[in-house]
Amino acid sequence: MDFPLRNQFDNFSQVYPRTYGNMLKSGIINTSMMSPPPPFLYIYLAYDIDRYDGLFYCDQNQDQLRKVPWLVMKSNQYFVPSLFLLPSFKQELSKLFPDEETVFHHLGRYLFQPSNEAWGLITRFYRAYLSKADERIGIQVRVFDTKVTPFQTVVDQILSCTMKEKLLPDVLETRSSAASLSKNQSVKAVLVTSLYSEYYEHIKGVYWTKPTVSGEVIGVYQPSHEEHELYGNNMHSMKAWTEIYLLSMSNALITSSWSTFGYVAQSLGGLKPWILYRPLNGTAPDPPCVRAMSMEPCFHFPPSHGCKAEVNVGHVKHCEDVEWGLKLVKDH
């Protein structure tokens, strides 16, 4: 409560005059000298980072930054992969995370603790619908351009991926119930998360109206379908967090390209998902999905100017779903 900057946090934005980038731009400080160091610096590292703020990622600037008592950082990006490209951080990071692709897994499970109310939503849904299944399959659907991407294209892509990768069985082209008489049937629970109910309804209909060729019983469930993102609505956010956590409890996971919702679920669960490629011009891609290199999230907007380090080497690679993005992989 007595932290000296506590009452200033609401003012911290990209235009705040005392951001690291703005102070460099105005000449208050420079990259070669900062003596004496200011009592604090605000570092803006969001997706719309500019050239000056991006100098944070230059290794030669870290010597001066580490002399500053307090660094206040703001970002909506998972910028950890770029820290691994800074030589001055490498030794410390390798001690903290000897397995590079588990960084978010450890940080997320340590830092993201559900409230009692959220934990109640998670456990009640899990016990009611998922706990008794032999296998749990998570399908996270995020469509960014709904106006140009037909519903049928997306649902066909999802089913093509699940069957091609043998995550879900095909169905018999008959309504016969003979297959349901076999003994020792295994049960798969499919958890669908989406803002919309149509994907869940279609997949549920596929496995409700026809038997599977394998004789497996497939149950399909969706906790909520909010239709729109509601920023600042606590219950809406709690439902999203509940669904992320439930997805992380899957045995296998299918996620959507570019989706941070899916990234968090895969990382919390320690899962390498199958990522659905983004449809182009409303056409389903072939192949429909690709297996992720690691459980780590993708850093969508790494700095693209100044002291950019070489990537696609060792434990930092370009992402499967964002060709210019960066992600951590296990360094073999």
TrEMBL record:
Localization: Golgi apparatus, Golgi stack membrane
Alphabetically ordered keywords of this record: Cell wall biogenesis/degradation, Glycoprotein, Glycosyltransferase, Golgi apparatus, Transferase
One GO location term (cellular component): Golgi cisterna membrane
Protein name: Fucosyltransferase
GO terms for MF: galactoside 2-alpha-L-fucosyltransferase activity
Role played: May be involved in cell wall biosynthesis.
Mode of membrane association: Single-pass type II membrane protein
The keyword Transferase is assigned to this record: yes
Domain of life: Eukaryota
Similarity field: Belongs to the glycosyltransferase 37 family.
Entry keyword Glycoprotein: yes
GO biological process, one term: xyloglucan biosynthetic process
Organism of provenance: Salix udensis
Signal peptide boundaries: none
E.C. designation(s): 2.4.1.-
